[in-house]
């Protein structure tokens, strides 16, 4: 087993890129990562494999087979390449596959590029496409979108713990506050408590302020067995039932517990040693459940960390340090790559105005479906 | 979507036919042939009563393609009296009056107009508030 390090990272702006295609977005991220690698290692690291991460191109752009699409366009003809699809966890899952390839010694250097394009089509079709991450025969057929399923989860959370909807406000407020320092974020406007309370319903109790905006974007990272400043000290994945209704413990977020637990065990670390946590706030309720499942709060108490101001960049457990999904934007299949790239910048101390003070250990976790597939990575300053 | 796929699911969509585990008596819906409670093989058909209660609910304002005409509509997790939870639209209900714990029963309704050029209709279960009956 080789140790696995992160060389360059490449982050492109998340948002609406009407003028750029899937392959152009992906290439821009790969170029940025290659330039970063050259700066760090004093030369380009030739890669032997490329792992693309994309969830929806087959449905929204009529384009599958992204491993080859991107390798070909990026001038990497001949390279081993494949696309990894795991809904919202595609990015993390692709990194996990690259990690396994490098750790095994089969590959010295692997590229991971996450790319998504949601703005080529209209809202109803995007909703139908994202709903394919659920159980098509028994959830989606009832008109249950991911937001609707997250609404069922939030409603049950509020009912079980006797809470009001506004306990989730600070997750959205924190995301937007942090995004101000990130030029790659989709939204850099301030959210007030009042605006949160007045936001229009999407899937009650979930409002527009609880949902991260789906958007276009691409990010890339280079994984290598050549030592760099950032080591991947854990890579773990876990699954739950595909359908939300099949979970014996709806609020347990079991796959997040399993995935984080496996990562902690590999790294021989616990939640107290994590300096920042890029969690998957596709919906604000996910943020609360992830904090609980990863051991930062007791069950039913995850919201309290936000309400008590413990999630800011200089507080107990910084989350959404570049804006999170809510304000950086959620380019679905690419999001997991954005998260790990952001954590790499944090533990390198190169996060600029987004820097978490003294960050040495950072965790990233991405989620496919409604907690059905969860990938966790922990990075540490080497 | 393909006609064969809806045809294949007709017993579940129209009859709430699931399974019962011969090893631990767990009731299973939708059928999955492996018991989620004891992991034993479970292929014995079991017809659910169609009675249950709302375990959680949401009102969908931003529908997917094929459901625009219905919006806003209620989607619930319905806990069947026999144990399993399923996902279903609620129908014949005031959206503002949906509550966790509310008693509901199965009815058959049009689920969606499918997105293909034939405009095929898909029918299946929805749940509505249980009608009050004398002595109930
Ligand atoms: Zn059984």
Protein architecture, described:
The complex is a heterodimer of chains A (382) and B (136). By secondary structure, chain A is of the alpha/beta class. Chain A has one domain (4-122, 217-381): Thiolase/Chalcone synthase (Peroxisomal Thiolase, Chain A, domain 1). Chain A has helices at residues 22-41, 57-60, 66-73, 90-103, 123-130, 146-161, 169-179, 193-198, 254-267, 284-293, 302-307, 324-328, 335-348, and strands spanning 5-11, 49-53, 80-84, 109-116, 201-203, 206-207, 217-224, 230-239, 276-278, 361-368, 373-381. In chain A, the strands form two sheets. A nine-stranded mixed sheet of chain A has the order 3-2-4-7-1-8-11-10-9, with helices on both faces. Chain A has a two-stranded antiparallel ribbon with strand order 5-6. Chain A is globular and about 55 Å long. Chain B has 136 residues and is mainly beta. Chain B has one domain (3-129): Beta Barrel (OB fold (Dihydrolipoamide Acetyltransferase, E2P)), CATH 2.40.50.840. Helix content of chain B is 9%, strand content 40%. Chain B has two helices and eight strands, in the order ααββββββββ. Chain B has a five-stranded antiparallel sheet. In chain B, strands 2-1-3 form a three-stranded antiparallel sheet. Chain B is globular. Classes of the chains: A alpha/beta (382), B mainly beta (136).
Query: Helix- and strand-based class of chain A?
Result: alpha/beta
Going across the biggest sheet of chain B, name each strand in turn.
6-5-4-7-8
Largest sheet of chain A: 9 strands, mixed
Unreliable stretches of chain A, pLDDT < 50, 5 or more residues?
A: none
General shape of chain B: globular
How many beta-strand segments of chain B?
8
- Assembly type: heterodimer
Q: How many domains comprise the coordinates of chain A?
A: 1
